[in-house]
Amino acid sequence: MKILVINCGSSSLKYQLFDMDNEEVLVKGLVERIGIDGSRLKQEKGEDEYIIEEDMKDHTEAVKHVFDAITDKENGVISDLSEIDAVGHRFVHGGEKITKSVVIDENVREAVKEYSKFAPLHNPANMMGLEACEKLLPNVKNVAVFDTAFHQSMPEENFLYGIDYKYYEDQAVRKYGFHGTSHDFITQKTAQVLEKDQKDLNMISCHLGNGSSICAIKEGKSFDTTMGLTPLEGLVMGTRSGDLDPTVVTFLMNEYGYDTKKMDNVLNKESGVLGVSGVSSDFRDLENAANDGNKRAEIALKMFANRAKRYIAGYMAEVGNVEAIVFTGGIGENSITMRESIMEGFEQFGIKIDPEKNNVRGGCHLVSTDDSKVKVFVIATNEELMIARDTKKLV
């Protein structure tokens, strides 16, 4: 069975084509700058690269280029689109109405549209990818896999906010959590590595990237997580503010005359380590700037590490008997120094990083000392494989 996985952002599209008989990635690629001058598709097949540079005005054109690339006689891997058995789509927000992966029907569409109010940058883009696939592959089933689904196991005391209960009843205002597909994969992989039944596993999953979230896993399920109603809550991120006093919002709106659209843009696109450092949202640039003596870049990195440290420690107390702390995502997998910074201070609780073991990127590695009371791992996430697995089950 061949399954295509599509992950649409507002101006980008990631894709992978799997042979699910052995879970082999046949080809993968990225389309960037959709709807912007300089659109570009880069496809990888083993060590071979195939690049298309051509303006793509929308996601329909982008998906068409993807289909052309995977069927290209020299650079593709299938001869005809009829070889694709199903398409799995990453969707960000399913609210309380969709609590697991589903074959897409009209009810799913309505839920996606309804919860676009909580994910205005993501759900509409996800929907554009779906519509493009439906147009170009009219007889193939499409499956939606939601970032929020894994976190539906959180208890009320963890997902409710300290505001009038009527806002939850009337408008479904609550914590939903995100990166669920990644946290789910990491939980399953950690259970496999520890040779444990997932339902017996307590752990902390740290998905750290430009967007970051930490998840407390209790008995193999999401018990608490840092992101909230939207992906803005929680850790300081690349361009997102993370947690702050809500009064900051009204104060800035009053002082600068910002409307809600401008304020939303400030918090989502002009804040985080970019806003603090004034340098970049890319942590590699921040580390280079900090090493060159840039004080604000150094502060931004310390803020990120301290916020992560605070959540990990708090979640350990919430969950109890934590067996593993796992780092994943672009930063979690690749920043040796950030992992060290986050775990600094945990020695007092008997949790220790081994500097030599920690000198790794990606893959699956134990990086804690032999006598550490909690095992610390680096495990590369694979959201696309999780989407493909769910798609296979459903179709």
UniProtKB/TrEMBL annotation:
Name a single GO cellular component. Answer: cytoplasm
Named in its record, the pathway it takes part in is:
Metabolic intermediate biosynthesis; acetyl-CoA biosynthesis; acetyl-CoA from acetate: step 1/2
Enzyme Commission number: 2.7.2.1
Give me the residues that bind ATP, please. Answer: K14, H207, L208, G209, N210, G211, D282, F283, R284, G330, I331, G332, E333, N334
| Molecular function GO terms recorded | acetate kinase activity; ATP binding; magnesium ion binding
| Sites marked Transition state stabilizer | H179, R240
Q: Entry's CDD domains?
A: ASKHA_NBD_AcK_PK
How is its cofactor bound, per UniProt? Mg(2+). Can also accept Mn(2+).
- Which GO biological process annotations does it have? acetate metabolic process; acetyl-CoA biosynthetic process
Which Pfam families does the protein's record reference? Acetate_kinase
Q: Which Gene3D superfamilies match?
A: 3.30.420.40
Keyword line: ATP-binding, Cytoplasm, Kinase, Magnesium, Metal-binding, Nucleotide-binding, Transferase
What positions does the entry give for substrate binding? R90
**Would you identify the family this protein belongs to, as annotated?**
Belongs to the acetokinase family.
Function as written in the Swiss-Prot or TrEMBL entry: Catalyzes the formation of acetyl phosphate from acetate and ATP. Can also catalyze the reverse reaction.
Record's protein name: Acetate kinase
